[in-house]
Amino acid sequence: MKRIPFDQLQQTFKHILLQLSFTEEKAALCAGIFAANSRDGVHSHGLNRFPVFVQYIKDGLVNPSAEPELQSSNGLIETWNGNLGAGMYNATKAMQRAITLATDNGIGCVALQNTNHWMRGGTYGWQAADAGCIGICFTNAIAGMPAWGGAEPVLGNNPLVIAVPRTKGHIVLDMAMSQFSYGKMQEYELKHEQLPVPGGYDDAGNLTTNPSAIRANKRALPIGFWKGSSLALVLDIVLTALSGGRSTTKITADKKEYGVSQCFICLRQPDMHDALVEEILAYTKSSQPAMPGGRISYPGENTLRTRVQSEKEGVLVNEEIWEQVLQLK
Question: Which of 174, 216, 232, 290 has the greatest number of C-beta atoms within 10 Å?
């Protein structure tokens, strides 16, 4: 791993996207999200994912010129069609629309069908929190996890994001329904490391810390065992019911992850009771760390810490993947 300036990373991404028929606006937005993900330590959905994104464009699975379109409106719930556009662009637009609805009405919901991978879901939680809203968003995905009691992958890891605005640093929960996201397992694999705790099953059905085995057979371990399995299923059902878009069943049938469904919800009120929120955080962090030198952090706190370090010292990148990206210029 080595460090490079954030601006260099962002401009490299943008230059490549402009060559792939992205407009200046879209190239800047998508490049900024890829670079910010790596800056914040989410390498799996930053630099590491960029070559895959480029290939999806070349394969015609991501349409650089597509714009999201309003399909229907039911009170404060809107359904949009992403038209297979860039997932980060569509997600940003959808969350902004939910923010607008919430700003005017206190609540807003945008269901998005026929879109693409949003990369780091937390991006849109931070977006909502920056606008002073509580943000909730979730997406479905290609099957990569068995249902509890099953042996074959039939559930997506269907990430869920919940963000709460806070003056001292937003609270942003960004979690897959599997113990480790596939991107995080790739990071361990690239470093030739085992997972710190079991993250899935090997081919014999035994729990394993081997990320390569799990990524190969797609038998990731659900968080909370049967609870995570159930939550992944229900999120997919809610997404399909609200958006009318493709479920994990349909996405998986095509063998490649595109045309997914997503939902963006914003809540806003003048008084978010900041003092009460601080009381909760203070109580949580008052616990003695279980390990000497350990630290108790709220969701999003480590992200902010990594962001500050990256802005000061440069963004950590995998040298091999960075060279791959430079060859795309």
Answer: 232
